[in-house]
Amino acid sequence: MAKKILVVEDEKNIARFIELELTHEQFDVTIAYDGRAGLDLAMTESFDVLLLDVMLPDLNGIEVCRRVRKTSDIPILLLTARDTVTDRVAGLDAGADDYIVKPFAIEELLARIRAVLRRTSAEEKNLTSFKEIAVDEAAFQAYVEEEPLQLTKTEFDLLLLLVKNQNLVCTREQILTAVWGYDSEVETNVIDVYIRHLRAKLPDHLSHYIETVRGVGYVMRS
């Protein structure tokens, strides 16, 4: 079944362009041209993603986002011509999942939509995710863009630890305890070996997200 996307955009040329591109990608698209109409649709109908312009007549996108988020966990992407830190923080604080700055390439917009849909799918399946990586702890399987990764048990445990603690530095001691056990006699340099193995098994555009924090440990950082 096609994923349903609500696009709230007051510039009709942009709205039509987005509609045509998303329809071509097999999405079911509904358009609203002002904040009030967009809010009404978002609150009364079921959608998989909400694309929301910030500068809208009747009700601005930040307020629409805030009101929708009170009752719905639908993924919300803000479309904005402003890229200051203050603007981004306001959108994220209102409950947006992501934002994209105008003018944007349609390929980037499609990639952002696919990313939030993957995160939603991972949450529904009780997966732990980081960007295109999803880890199913119960099934002992990790995926990149839904393709299974061939990992050893140690590599899997290491990836799971980093993804669960994304953006938090894991010290060498924490890694040793979590992956090898608190009473393990494994030397800490073994961690470096397995990090290299793990990076080698991830696509190039994802491997660099595993950062080395010299003298401390490692972190999966976005």
Protein architecture, described:
This protein has 222 residues and is of the alpha/beta class. Helix content is 45%, strand content 21%. It is built from 9 helices and 12 strands. The chain has a 5-stranded parallel beta sheet with strand order 2-1-3-4-5, sandwiched between helices. A 4-stranded antiparallel beta sheet has the order 6-7-8-9, sandwiched between helices. A 3-stranded antiparallel beta sheet has the order 10-12-11. Helix 1 links the parallel strand 1 and strand 2. Helix 2 packs parallel to helix 3 and helix 6 crosses helix 7.
Write the layout of secondary structure elements.
Blueprint: E1 4-8, H1 12-24, E2 28-32, H2 35-44, E3 49-53, H3 61-71, E4 76-80, H4 85-93, E5 98-101, H5 106-124, E6 128-130, E7 133-136, E8 141-144, E9 147-148, H6 153-164, E10 170-171, H7 172-180, H8 189-201, H9 204-207, E11 210-213, E12 217-220
Parallel strand pairs: 1-2, 1-3, 3-4, 4-5
Antiparallel strand pairs: 6-7, 7-8, 8-9, 10-12, 11-12
Helix pairs in contact: 2-3, 6-7, 6-8
Placed side by side, the strands forming the largest sheet appear as 2-1-3-4-5
- Measured as a percent range, the helix fraction is 40-55%
Overall strand count: 12
Order of helices and strands: EHEHEHEHEHEEEEHEHHHEE
Low-pLDDT runs of 5+ residues are: none
- The average pLDDT score comes to 91
Q: What's the helix count?
A: 9
Strand content: 15-25%
- The helix-and-strand class reads alpha/beta
Distance between the termini: 31 Å
Largest sheet: 5 strands, parallel
Shape: elongated
